[in-house]
Amino acid sequence: MKTGFIGAGKAGCSLSRYLAGRQTEICGFYSKTPKHSRQAADYTKSAVFLNLEDVVKESDMIFVTTPDSVIGQIWEAIKKLEDQKKVRLGGKIFCHVSGSLSSQTFSGAGERGAFACAAHPMLAISSKDADLTGAFFTLDGDERAVAAVSSMLNDKGNPTAVIDPSCKKKYHMAASAASNLAVGLAQMAVDALADCGFSEEAAFTMLTPLMLGNVKNICEKGTAKALTGPAERCDCQTVAAHLAQLNGEDKEIYRLLSMRLLSIAQTKNPTRDYSKLKTILEEKDQ
């Protein structure tokens, strides 16, 4: 299937390089920055499109890999091209890779004979050559579009699942909590170690085995079996000492997350009494 890309950033470059193969012929890129289009085209030995009209004409499937806020604008511009009889959308598949937006962003696609899809990789894409091997993709949209994109991904060995479009915001929140918010917690730990006199490099040397081991246990055993530490042990004295070291938002973050840990700990240890620790954590001004 001839596949074109609108947007030549990290997602577009990584996905195009990954998908190129026997099922997928990358025909080219269009970007508002021609330099980026040329760089992306060099990656996949494909064409540079100078306008939306050409990429739509030449492609059977079009991936819109722009920032989320631009996807709707791109789609409206494409529909206008058809209204001006410059392109025909019938039979073409349009797909974006946003985690928070659904395929409904391509409003009215079905009325024009086109097929809409959203396909989001549960993976942080931090560079133009991110490795998507094994990444889990969630999809929603028209049956034909979902089937076509699923086939491309399954051919590469990627697991996929269909999600209800109404759940995309909560789904994306879950991904952000597991990924982006974890970065904030890591920084909180690094800052605390800096107060103890350690450099950032030393802090990460200390924390890396702890963080990697914990993530491994969570993924392999689940949250309850992976949980350790003072909250799980109901060590009130230690938790109170931790709270005494914190101020402002850091203290509130520790308090609220520890409250969440109590519910997990109670599942793990149903006969243990956590009421005293809960009282300590519920006291906001300590």
UniProtKB/TrEMBL annotation:
Residues 2-121 form the Putative oxidoreductase/dehydrogenase Rossmann-like domain. Transmembrane segments: none annotated. Gene3D superfamilies: NAD(P)-binding Rossmann-like Domain, ProC-like, C-terminal domain. This is DUF2520 domain-containing protein. Residues 136-259 form the DUF2520 domain. InterPro entries: 6-PGluconate_DH-like_C_sf (IPR008927), DUF2520 (IPR018931), NAD(P)-bd_dom_sf (IPR036291), OxRdtase/DH_put_Rossmann_dom (IPR019665), TM1727-like_C_sf (IPR037108).
